[in-house]
Amino acid sequence: MAKKEPAPPLPGSDAKPAGKLKLIIVIAVALLLAVGLSIGGTWLVLHKNSAADEAKSEEAAEGAAPGKQPAIYEQLAPAFVVNFKQDGRQRYMQVSIALMARDEAQLKALKVHLPMLRNRLVMLFSGQDFNALTTPVGKEMLRQQATASVQELAQKEIGQTVVEQVLFTNFVLQ
């Protein structure tokens, strides 16, 4: 039996496999180029946005008041506990307070007068009407009165108001 030899390739059939290979290479290069452009564009946009944010931050820092310092909070511990006699019934109020100031040195100077400050606040709290304190407006009024009282003491003892706000960090009525 004789072996059959494969038929010689036709001149047109040679081009088809090479053409497919060229097509695959062109598609792969185009795909890699598209991915590269996508990554480059994303990086450029993100970098441009971060540069704009940095510029805005710098402008905001320059535009801020030069004398404005960050807030400092001083927690007054232990919490204030006062009692009321309301309609023949004993009632209690517990308030935790934080003082907000901007100058550390002045706040330290005010700490020297902490016993007097606590006394003023206890007297202020114990003189309140229990029913008025059950409303949000009553609580806000008490907070403003406490702020005014602390600022008055600071003005009298140190010569400056020192405390911007008195903040209630816990407020319990029973």
TrEMBL record:
Keywords: Cell inner membrane, Cell membrane, Cell projection, Chemotaxis, Cilium, Flagellar rotation, Flagellum, Membrane, Transmembrane, Transmembrane helix
Coarse class of the protein's main subcellular location: membrane
Pfam family, one: FliL
Keyword S-adenosyl-L-methionine: no
Domain of life: Bacteria
Annotated signal sequence range: none
Subcellular location: Cell inner membrane; Cell membrane
GO biological process: bacterial-type flagellum-dependent swarming motility; chemotaxis
Topological category with respect to the lipid bilayer: Single-pass membrane protein
Cellular compartments per GO CC: bacterial-type flagellum basal body; plasma membrane
Family recorded in the similarity comment: Belongs to the FliL family.
Function of the protein: Controls the rotational direction of flagella during chemotaxis.
Full protein name: Flagellar protein FliL
Gene that produces this protein: fliL
